[in-house]
Design brief:
The chain is of the alpha/beta class. The chain has six helices and eight strands. Helix 5 crosses helix 6. The radius of gyration is 19 Å and the shape is globular.
Amino acid sequence: MDRRRILRGAAVAAAGALLPASVRATAATTGDTDYPSAHWVPASTSNYTVSTRPSAYPVQYVIIHVTQETYSDAVAIFQNPAKQVSAHYVVRSADGYIDQCVREKDVAWHAGNWDYNTRSIGIEHEGYVDQPSYFTDAMYTKSALLTASVCDRYGIPKDRAHILGHVQVPGTDHTDPGPNWDWVRYIRMVNLLGSG
């Protein structure tokens, strides 16, 4: 039994070595994230549009969301192909842990407006708009670091004209991140923590 398992493993490894180098390289990086502090937890491919941003569409905004769900439920929703929704990142309340669910090159379906989806990175934050206790120091800090990184990489100005709440997206019926989100603090942190 052990010998058979070893032989089977050797055959799989040999078959992998026969793949073209470009395919092997792609397979090796499948779990990598665009933001080094994030963890790759992919959304269902039914819940976003594959793209080649920023060449296909310029990335000009970061859109801040609040999940209205727990962290794990939000990630599970993005993995459910029937839900037709996703965001690039989800930030956990307690400690600022970040999952990346959609590659930045791809168009996540988070804003409810195709034009804004194509030109933005969507960041969900665990919590509820009417429960400010979810907006912890750790969440603000880790999210601000992530937003600063996105802004630095795409040349997005770190201001309220380019870092938007979901409520600001034309045509939306959402109110997040809501009145308890501290925009003054957040924008200040994004500017302090960014490289430029």
